[in-house]
Amino acid sequence: MPTAGHARNARLFGIAHNTLTALKELVPARFQATVVAEQVQTTLTQTQAAVVNPMTHSLQRSLSASFASLEARTGAAASPEGSADLVAVSQACAHVSRYYFSLFGAGQLQSYLKSLCSFTVRSFLSSACMVKPCGQLQRAALAKDMQVVETLLSSLDSDFQTRIRYEASVFASFRKLIFATNVESLDMDELTNVIPLHLLLAYLVHQLPSAVPSLPTFAGTAPQQYLETVLLPLWDEEPKALEAFKASIASLSDKHNLDATESPMVAFIVAQTS
């Protein structure tokens, strides 16, 4: 439970937050550079970060750890409650939100919680798209975990669907992939209107037969390293990074003789990476 020191830190955060807001709103524009100097802004911003970051970063590490074993834990039948470690992190988020974040002023943590929610969705979906094999049992487990993630996000911000509208829409569309009994029947071009291309390609590549290796295996890296160095940065939509990613899939396709005439899914992968 929070200590008296946490309550004091929350007040210090509020002072820094309100001071910075007041300076920007009340000081005339012509005096901004003099009064709201860079050093002043930096000091007030760092004060806020020093209070909040230890909590949000701790939750991020716990989330990353729960997502890291996603592939291994979806090999068995889905638990009615979702994966145990993810459920535990969800409960921790709810506890921190109720007893720690609630001590801050209304709206003061909005930008921090938005970043945390965005990180949660991006990390989960990036981990989910690497599950191989991804048969009926695995998809059922992922669907349960998606419910847990939604509960987790709601505990952090009841209005998360509005705050992170983009990630929320991707999350909803990704569910279509999970529930699709036949991925070949889906309109891939329609999905690319919402789901980032790198995420869709990664998911589809991991639906290929077991003879075709996973992307981390083909790249010769551990799944967690591949997640952190390749998939997560691709959310920033850097053109060069996306081209390099597509080139790696094209190389995999060539090495394992993927033929566009095999199926609509393979045709889409080849067309998008050639």
Number of strands: 0
Shape: elongated
Rg over C-alpha atoms, rounded to the nearest angstrom: 22 Å
Strand content bin: under 5%
Count of runs of 4 or more consecutive helical residues: 15
Give the biggest sheet: none
Distance between the termini: 55 Å
In round numbers, the mean pLDDT is 92
Number of structural units classed as domains: 1
Helical coverage, percent range: over 70%
Low-confidence stretches: none
Order of helix and strand elements from N to C terminus: HHHHHHHHHHHHHHH
Query: Strand pairing plus helix content: what structural class?
Result: mainly alpha
How is the quaternary structure best described?
A: single chain
Overview of this protein structure:
The structure is a single chain. The radius of gyration is 22 Å and the shape is elongated. α3 packs parallel to α6. Helices cover 72% and strands 0% of the residues. The model has no long low-confidence stretch (mean pLDDT 92). The protein has 15 helices and no strands. The longest helix is centred in the N-terminal third of the chain and has 31 residues. It has 274 residues and is an all-alpha fold. The chain has one domain.
